[in-house]
Write a structure and sequence with these properties.
mainly alpha; 54 residues
Length: 54
């Protein structure tokens, strides 16, 4: 499973469980920035994940 797939699954499960609050969103945004910086996810994947968190 790729980093992108794990992140997508994590976001969906937290949203489904109703525990995806602003603190979790901010924390995950910082992590996504780091994953993008170190080429663990592509820019298009980053944008998809950011939209998914809205």
């Amino acid at each position: 499973m790729t980093t992108y797939e794990m992140l997508e699954k994590h976001i969906n499960s937290k949203k489904r469980d109703g525990v995806f609050d602003d603190l979790m969103k901010d924390t995950l945004k910082h992590k996504l920035d780091i994953f993008l910086l170190f080429n663990r996810i592509s820019e298009s994947q980053y944008n998809i994940l950011m939209k998914q968190m809205e």
